Amino acid sequence: MEGQSRRGFVAAAGATALSYSRILGANDRVRMGYIGVGNRGDQVHDAFLEWADQETVAVCDLRDDYMDLAVKKSRATPRKYDDYRKLLDDKGVDAVVIATPDHWHALMFIDACHAGKDVYCEKPLSLTVFEGRRMVQVAEETRRVVQVGLNRRSSAFLQEAAEFVRAGGIGQVTMARSYHLVNEWPLGIGPAAPRNPPSEEEWDKWLGPAPKVPYDKNRMYYRFRWFYNYSGGQVTNFGVHYMDALRWCLGKDAPLAVTGMGGKYAVEDDREVPDTAEILWDFGGTMVTFSQINCNAAGGNLRGSEMELRGTKGTMYIDMGRWDVVPEMNASLEISARTPLDRDYEKSWSRSRKPAMEERHGKGSIDPAPHARNFLDCIRSRKQTNCDTLTGHLSTAATLIGNVALRTRSYLEWDAKAERFPNNAAANQWLSYKYRAPYKLG
Description:
Blueprint (H helix, E strand, L loop, with lengths): L5 H19 L5 E6 L4 H10 L4 E7 L3 H10 L5 E3 L2 H6 L5 E4 L6 H10 L3 E4 L7 H14 L3 E3 L7 H11 L6 E9 L18 H8 L25 H5 L1 H12 L6 E7 L12 E7 L4 E7 L13 E5 L2 E6 L2 E6 L1 E9 L7 E11 L4 E4 L5 H13 L7 H20 L2 E3 L29
Parallel strand pairs: 1-2, 1-4, 2-3, 4-5, 5-6, 7-10
Antiparallel strand pairs: 7-11, 8-9, 8-17, 9-10, 11-12, 12-13, 13-16, 14-15
């Protein structure tokens, strides 16, 4: 079955928005505020700008050039803030988008919920498992509408793929794999020569709850992803997209155990996160892997796709714009005697020429605009979004404990209810961290 095209999906969502405008009035718009408008924040802003029933009324960032670009793109003239708390105090803001570095997500999210704002928070939801669980609790307590920026949850073709797998379409799935391939050799992010920060105040604000360290341009803005105080590296950056999609297809909440290996094998730079890694989760009946490989030349599997699910009836390959199922050929165990009087039997596997299922395909897009549309619709309906706080937390937590296993070089059992490692007390220290004064988690 072909996945719904982006044009069809957007048209349907537009019809929904039109029906709301007829009910609420043509001039009714969701008033949006943006906290962090560089890089990913700019991309998410573009996704919301596609919809006429919202408007950008406020932006916040440490950089004026980022805010100026956001203002230039907006239909109105948004108010500019250099402190996110001032934006949250703005009574003219209905909902906020948080697209800051990961280590700021929890504080801003919780403050936004307590300020009565609905929240779109970029992935990964949190820097630690403890933060993520608290974010789930606060969203429930304050009854806020939340969308976590795992935007593939709003891609029609992936909804179709997940439903097909969960319905047993490819049989029992015993292995699911994902791949992140980027060749960073030889320079990576390079060395950071000592220099003065843009301003001590800006550097201090950027660090926020993270430990105070001397200024390093490699730690600031996009390069923060290579340092554990601010991010989980590519395991939580791209890996959380894959984990969420695979968990969705499998219908599983949390793993039973995790282990990992990796390191800086190819690149010599200032990073803390590995350039090469393999993480393995046991989801009870299904093994799930994330492979971070320092190469570009070929895909992680024969199809060159980001993800694959190996089932007893077929294998599903998932890429950014399509999914394909390749059928398994039926196999049976044949037992035959060498001679009529032989008691020693010869066992051999034989494959029939009949496929276990028919080929299946789906096409679509991972454009974030439908995810923005779903958030806007749920602000009005007060219904649960496609990727609510708990969904985002479960997918993020799985990748976060993958990093704990990688950093401690451990096999870790996972108690999903308590969100602790029962077989390794020392590893539990990695599930949270002490914020730098005066920052506190609400």
